[in-house]
Amino acid sequence: MDRRLFVCVKQKSGVGEDVAKALKKELRAQGLKSQDIDGSKWRNHVQTCNCLDLCKKCKKGPGAALIVYPEGIEYGNVRPGDVAELVTEHFGRGRVLKRLHLD
Known about the structure:
The protein has 103 residues and is an alpha+beta fold. Helix content is 28%, strand content 32%. The protein contains three helices and five strands; from the N terminus they run βαββαββα. It has helices at 15-29, 55-58, 83-92, and strands at 2-8, 34-37, 40-49, 64-69, 73-78. A five-stranded mixed beta sheet has the order 2-3-1-4-5. Strand 2 (34-37) and strand 3 form a beta hairpin. The radius of gyration is 13 Å and the shape is globular.
């Protein structure tokens, strides 16, 4: 199965691209580019997109918005410095990172 991380690059100047690059690097560094979950092989892919329609939820902070599919988990105000924690929690431990989670 594939999991996709869509990162908005339109919302904030440059930060979306930086977050996407950091996500790719961190998934590799933590050995989570592919993983076994409940006996199924999952591959994690990072993709950029022009709009996720999350601007109102992001509160115009300095970070980017992203959505993880197929879960549909939305994160906002994500900065490159948040990526290691996000990857550890969401992909390594299977828990939503509450401080960046959008309701």
